[in-house]
Specification:
The protein contains two helices and no strands. By secondary structure, the protein is mostly helical. It is elongated.
Length: 55
């Protein structure tokens, strides 16, 4: 089970990830910094979701 801070983090990261996906979906190429940030959000979201399912 995730604690309150992790649940908030999950919600905020999902919102930012969705916003970035929408913002950059029309661009053909992403700069390295942008792709690193998007991948960080995606990995952290997946990690939190897996931890919430484990308990």
């Amino acid at each position: 089970m995730l604690d309150a801070a992790e649940l908030i983090e999950l919600a905020v990261f999902e919102r930012h990830y969705t916003d970035l996906e929408c913002k950059y979906q029309k661009q053909d190429t992403l700069y390295n910094d942008e792709s690193v940030i998007i991948n960080y959000f995606k990995n952290r979201i997946n990690d939190l979701k897996e931890r919430s399912r484990d308990n």
